[in-house]
Design brief:
alpha/beta; globular; D-Maltodextrin-Binding Protein, domain 2; nine-stranded mixed beta sheet; about 45% helix; 15 helices
Length: about 450
């Protein structure tokens, strides 16, 4: 007679279930967890500086952490796309910039102003042109004469290829009867690192806003040759405009906060009201005045009108014949993933061919188990990317890590136990201690 063993719930399973259910408590009221503020540009630039100040003040208003994430790359494509495609739950905002009006005209992405719900226009700044203090050009006219006599001898930066500061400089060159690419543009993601390159003689000129270079101007390390504004900037009264120096050219950019489309109305209104209080606070206004940033707030409807106006303007500029050298890019945004997948396909093909050419007495035609295991890791990575925003980090990571370990022939109690311990620990380290936003998904944890 076979003795019946009592049923016991395996310890790892119970531990995993407890870990997954720990965050299920329902929504206590919006917002009840950290908010992510995406900045499409590098740390140290004007957009990053404003983003971090707004985030710090929003934390006080909302009572939850507001974490700035610099999602750089692709001339602004990465950050703007990430913001537009984020889950519309009110926990992701984006500091959108004028490049949003330019990227789709350049064929870099199909993301445009209509993919966002505007929250608030924060400020608008005119472009300005900077050189090192020891540069030979003392005025815009002297620089004009040098470029006309030595086309493509100078290098400039300030943002990515085809960004607003690049278009501002290229537009001035075109307006003066020169080619838009007579000054070679070096793409760098942001004014901060571009000014660093200017100081180290990596470039000869930087085109950006006055506030972004204010510290170097005060230190006497850079000289501003002019600002592309209709009139002098109040906080920089000594800087002449381009028009004062005989050039009928003006150009600038804007930045503001936006949400992905589809955010519930109550949450969007809550955020809009909080941002409105922040930008009218004494702390914010003093910061903007001290930093030299123009303060020109506008509510959602007016912000939408500004974006639509700039979109029409940029469409006319970037599709014109003079700007074809600016509009063209040598490599598209899909070049890297395309190369990676092609290399993977070539490696897989080589393995299949080599296995198929073996003689029967030497080895099997192909090690199918080996190929399956080889494809497991990229397959699980793709599954994670597809599921994490919906199911959340904890559920997705726990399930996929357990399945991957079992697929690699790890005993299932060990796989479940490892996932039950490792996933919550990584969540606590990154989401709590390091304040890196991770998707919550179904569990609210």
């Amino acid at each position: 007679m076979t003795r019946r063993q009592p049923f016991r719930t395996p310890g790892p399973i119970a531990l995993l279930l407890l870990a997954l259910l720990a965050g299920c408590g329902g929504e206590k009221g919006y917002p009840d967890r950290p908010i992510m503020l995406i900045c499409p540009w590098s740390a140290g630039g004007g957009t990053d500086t404003v983003s971090r100040k707004v985030a710090a003040l929003l934390e006080q208003e909302l009572g939850v952490p507001v974490n700035v994430v610099n999602a750089t790359g692709g001339s602004g494509v990465t950050g703007h796309t990430r913001g537009a495609l984020a889950v519309p739950d009110g926990y992701t905002m984006t500091m959108i910039t004028v490049e949003l009006n330019m990227l789709h005209w350049r064929g870099l992405t199909n993301i445009g102003p209509d993919d966002f719900r505007p929250v608030m226009l924060l400020n608008r700044d005119a472009a300005a042109l900077f050189v090192r203090e020891d540069a030979p050009w003392k005025s815009l006219g002297e620089l004009h004469e040098y470029v006309a006599a030595h086309p493509r001898a100078l290098k400039a930066s300030g943002t990515a290829q085809g960004g607003i500061w690049h278009v501002s400089l290229a537009g001035w060159l075109d307006a003066e009867g020169m080619r838009a690419d007579d000054i070679i543009w070096i793409p760098i993601n942001g004014a901060g690192p571009s000014l660093d390159a200017l100081m180290s003689s990596g470039v000869d000129l930087v085109c950006c806003s006055l506030p972004e270079a204010a510290a170097l101007m005060e230190a006497g390390r850079v000289r501003c040759l002019g600002v592309m504004a209709e009139e002098r900037i109040a906080d920089f009264p000594d800087v002449p405009t381009f028009r004062e120096q005989g050039s009928d050219w003006a150009m600038g950019g804007w930045r503001g906060l936006a949400l992905p489309r589809g955010v519930p109305e109550e949450r969007a209104e809550r955020l809009t009201a909080a941002v409105d209080r922040v930008i009218h606070s004494e702390d914010y206004l003093e910061f903007m005045e001290h930093s030299g940033f123009n303060v020109s707030p506008a509510p959602p409807d007016q912000f939408r009108e500004v974006m639509e106006q700039f979109d029409r303007q940029m469409g006319q500029i970037l599709t014109g014949e003079a700007f074809q050298s600016v509009r063209r890019t040598r490599y598209g945004p899909m070049i890297f993933p395309t190369v990676v997948f092609l290399l993977m396909a070539v490696i897989l093909l080589v393995l299949v061919v080599r296995g198929g050419l073996r003689r029967a007495e030497d080895a099997p035609a192909i090690d199918r188990r080996g190929l399956v295991r080889m494809g497991m890791v990229p397959g699980f990575v793709m599954a994670y990317l597809l599921l994490v925003e919906t199911a959340g980090y904890v559920v997705t990571a726990a399930v996929l890590l357990s399945a991957l370990m079992v697929g690699l022939r790890v005993r299932w109690p060990v796989a479940l136990g490892t996932a039950a311990v490792l996933v919550p620990i990584t969540y606590q380290v990154f989401a709590v201690l390091l304040r890196v936003p991770l998707p919550w998904g179904w569990l609210g944890w």
